[in-house]
Every structure is written in structure tokens, then in C-alpha cells.
Amino acid sequence: QRSMSYKVLEGNVGYLRIDSIPDQEVLSQLGGFLVTHVWRQLMGSSALVLDLRHCTGGHVSSIPYLVSYLHPGGTVLHVDTIYNRPSNTTTELWTLPQVLGERYSADKDMVVLTSGHTRGVAEDIVYILKQMGRAIVVGERTKGSALELQKLRIGHSDFFLTLPVSRSLGPLGGGIQTWEGSGVLPCVGTPAEQALEKALGILTLRRALPQIIQRLEEALKNYYTLVSRVPALLHLLANMDFSAIVSEEDLVAKLNADLQAVSEDPRLLVRAIMPRENSPKPEPGANEQLGTLPAVPEDEAARQALVKSEFQVSVLHGNVGY
């Protein structure tokens, strides 16, 4: 209770907050208890929010244990390599081939919440899940701390030096610089106190995606005039990857770019129409059908004004009509 809490939010979204990550030995001793009293309560959720905004400590040995519950079974994944300077050794971290209880389905969306206080082992978990493509990171850039710190006395004085003695080599990042020093950059940046609300909005959009795509398919099949291109467009929609979609703007941009590329038709457009609470009401007697022309006036001068507003007529040089 001091280090974690959980609940199921509206929309059947599981929420798990972890403030301190114990080592693997403690997790092993509590494994059955955690699965029964925490994990099983979240397994039936349609999406998961992992809140690490207040997680400031942890043990490297617990990384494979936690990541394994979010990685599909049947395969193991090399998630990190840790270098320890005092012993001049490296330790590879792999997901576990077996776990107590069930793993969280890879087909369900997951969001990790971060803040500027998220540091150490929690940062490594955020980094791994982001590089795996398993989670959308929402919140602030993490602290950029170190995996393991050691306090050393300076000579026989009362002064001490605290410095990092282990570091992540981050194999999932392709051997490039990892999160240490710079922190993990979120996929969606927002103040930490607004991160949960933002995450729930993202999950609501992603939950609506199947219905949105179904309606697009129906519209193409029933109305699109370039009939010969419809099968290719339907195949595109059925196989489109929406894993990176975190906003309506992202969705509209992706759909338009891909649909227009396949159809070779720049007129094929998807738009997000937001409801307008304060939109003006139509004037009494106004034509309710969009796109219709105004009534033709009886007065000759008014007719000429109407025509001039729609047409420009002249004879150019060389007796060319324009």
C-alpha cells in the first residue's frame, strides 16, 4: 500500500500507480499475492495506464519482472545491458520465459505517465516500453538520473561524494545514447498534473478507431465514384497501423496522406468536425441545405449584380474571349 495502488477507471481503463519498485527477491516473495490481489483486478480492463510520475527509486533486478508482464509470451526479449564500473562487468536483462498469472494482452493499449520526478529504474522501464512500441508515454521529460548511485567517503573527512556507478547501455535504442543525463522524452508532452486526463482522452480516441474505420469503409463502398480504386482503399484501411496515433490531428493527417496516395485523388479528404457549442443559429427562412444557390431575384439590376458576382467576362487582345 505504501508503494502502489490500483483501480479500474471509467471506460474500463485499468490504472496502476507505482511509487517505489522493490527488488526481484521481494517481488518473488510477494509474486502470488500481487497477482491475486492486484494484477487480476486489472486483467479484464480494455486498456492500462501505468503511473510512474512519483516513482523515484527501484532496483535493476526488478526490470525484467515488470516488463515481462507487458511482453507477449512465447518469446524472450533482450531489453537492456547494465554496465557496472567498480566490477567492470556487464549484465544482460531479458524478459522472463514464464510469469505467474497472465500477461497483459499486447492487443490492448497502454499509456505510461511520467513527470520530471520520474527517475532511475523507473526511467529505464519507461524507456524500454517506449522503444518496444508497447506504450504511449504521456507527461513530462523524466529526470535523466542514474540506475545506481554509490556514496563514497572522501579520505578520512566528513565529506562524501555520490556518483553513478552503473549505467544502461540500452540495446533497444540501437547502441545510441540512452535516457541517462537527458531523460526520456514523452510521446505526448503535457504538465504532469494533467497527464492522466490527457491519457484518458488518447485512449478514448483509440477505442473509437474501429468504428471510425468501419464508417470510412462503408462510405467508400457506397459513395466513392472511382469504383475501381475502392478495393485497394479498403485493403489499406484494413491493414493500416494506428499504433502512433495519439490525437485527432494525427489520425486525420495519416488517413489523408495514405488514402490520397493509394487513390491518387487529392479530392478524397477526411476531416474532423468538432461540435460548436456557440455556433450561430440559421436565420428564419434561410436555406437549410448547404451549397445551394440563393433565389434568383426578380429585379434586373439585382440579377446583373448576381451574375457579375459569379462571372467575369471580357474580350482579350487578339479577339480572344475570356
From TrEMBL:
Organism whose genome encodes this protein: Rhynchocyon cirnei stuhlmanni
GO cellular component: cone matrix sheath
Annotated Gene3D superfamilies: 2-enoyl-CoA Hydratase, Chain A, domain 1 (3.90.226.10), 3.30.750.44
GO biological process annotation, one example: proteolysis
Annotated Tail specific protease domain residues: 1-191
Top-level taxon of the source organism: Eukaryota
GO molecular function, one term: retinol binding
Protein name: Interphotoreceptor retinoid binding protein
Family matches, as InterPro entries: ClpP/crotonase-like_dom_sf, Tail-specific_protease
Family matches, as PANTHER family: INTERPHOTORECEPTOR RETINOID-BINDING PROTEIN, RETINOL-BINDING PROTEIN 3
